[in-house]
Amino acid sequence: MKKKNWTNMFFVLPLLVINITFFVVPFVKSLYMSLYDWPLLGEKTFIGIQNFIRAFVDKKFLHSLLFTMEYALIVTPMLFLVAFVMAILVNQKFRGVGIFRTIYFMPVVISMTASADIWLWIYNELYGVLNHILLAVGIVDKPVAWMHLPKTSLPAVCAMVTWKMAGFSMLMLLGAFQSVDEEVYQSASIDGASKIQQFFRITLPLIRPTIGLSMVISIIGSVLAFEQFKIMTAGGPSSKTQTAVYYIYQTSFGHFKFGYGAAMSMILLVILAVLSYFQFAVMKDKTE
Amino acid sequence: MRRKLLISLLVSSMIFGLTACGDSGRGGNTTTAEDTQEQDGGSAQESANSVENDTAAEKSQGADSGEALEVWVRNTYFDEVTTAAKDFTEQTGIPVTVSEPSNMSDDLALALSSGETPDIVSIDCVLVPYYASIGALKDITTEFSALDYKDTFSGGLLDLSTYDGKQYAVPFAPDVSVLLYNKDIFKANGLDPEAPPKTWDELIAAAQACTSDDVYGYMFAASDAGGMMFTFCPYIWCNGGEFTSEDGTESMLNQPEAVEALQLITDMVYKYQVTPESITSYDWTAVEDAFKAQKSAMIVQGSSAVGNIVNEGYDFNAGCTLIPSPDGSKYASFSGGDSIAILADTDKYDAAWQFVQYCLSKEVQVDQLAAYGNIPSRSDMFENEIFGSHAEYDVLRQALEVGEAPYSLKYNEMYTPWIDAVQYALNQEKTPEEAFDDAKEEIDALLSE
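Output (structure tokens, whole complex):
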């Protein structure tokens, strides 16, 4: 038993070292920085929780948090629904299904920056292909300025993120679908359950933990949104589409207020940890 | 419960890795002049293109010798400085490594905080006061004063390179804003292609004449704070306004002259309808593309765009002129571009200063920068074979003469209230007066910190 424990530790060690080096150490350093007035160069001054107090009365930071939550609340279900439907579709057994799985997953492997650039071109008011199609079909009678105001730019960014990330959630859900024992469905069929009843009474409850994990990853990714808004909207107009991470980045690397940026990062961390905790609690597998 | 806490902690620490760790972003090109010298018949461009394979060897070579100067430049001037480095090494034997950080501001911040700084940096001239104020740059007052051409630099750009009465950088590659216009669209709409607008009224009239269903008369990068500083501030200045007070302690945007300028561009959207209503979604690239695609008859751009005109980079006939002023009596331009500075941490000061001087020589200023459409930073080099052959360069020279830029230690911090105000007005959420009143309040608060 003792030898097995050491063997287990040996296999976990590399990831533990990476996690400590690239996540835990920066976390501790950030916590330390958040208690200081920390300029780019020069004297660092201990100011205690002043940075945190400042963050709680900083209208721009609070607005960025609200906007981030708004974005997360829109994109998360959108992304999940699309991924869920795709997972159901590619869970069929037919020749060439692997090609579809590959195609649906492909956008996941390109960077968010590249994806944002591509879609910025698609949405372009003057020569974007989307307006070209909409005008040709007659859905609109003049080009739409997709990235002008939040009422269009926010859904536009959400659509881009859904296109890019749905493949990832699709794979997770596909794995969950395929992990359900076929015999369970056979037993249910014998008992007279229809396909729809099997889906809602068997499949969904059994894959609930995976649904929960998929939602947690999606929420975390949404709360950390940055590149897509920096590239597609530049946080505008008038900072209305500036996310929390974007504001933290601007404060730290634009205004060189590293201590204040670290404090806001800590606040964001707490928000994320709380959200994650509640999500896991809600999605707890009640069949266990 | 314990499992959920562990997962939350793991997730949280991963988040911190994302927000606390910075990618060094050194994804750009790097080349060492010593190695490019050794390649048979290799051009600087080929050297730059083969960089990714050679980078490790080149950097190792430089590090082993302990003599290689490390130079960081923005991508706009990477090719020119790479060539200059190669020539410098041929002449002096001092190896030079030229790097093009993917984001100069982020990478320099990381370098300064980690203590791993280059020897020389070519940075946005408006940021020199800030970096000088935090002790990041070397005081070069004595060496600069000994230059026999020290009086040939633009006064505005030279002022930006000083802090507390001392010189910390030298203007290297000026960039000035001028009005570009499509001569073919002008001609097609009955305008004289050789008579661009000189006044605000003429600008409006020309824009209105050129505007049609698929062409806008005038466009600007209203989603880009820096872009609007570069292209719109001259309208404030030529109207007699200022961005900040002379001592830099308060904003002057709420003054009538600045408000009138903001009213002008707002009217272009809604009153004269020569600019799209969605203009606040247009960044620098989008406006450039619109001009290239002949969707905009006029835009304000910098020196490199003029280089495009000269090198026939457009598919149409284009021209340039000074940015129109209210009555044609006083013109203005934004004097931007790069200044070159030596980092305070360098241990190769003499070699670094030698390279800086080389960058200010004719070999670089004319043979490299001017050849790519940039204006020399020294007025004694304006009369050169490249500039003399094209009238467009004379516009750049005139723009440099009337150019200015706000001097501030908090230049970056002023961006947000500035662009927010401009966008509020352009989206008709506030009047220009309200927008600039609010901007002044916010900027004054920043400047008083």
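The two ends of chain A are 27 Å apart (CA to CA).
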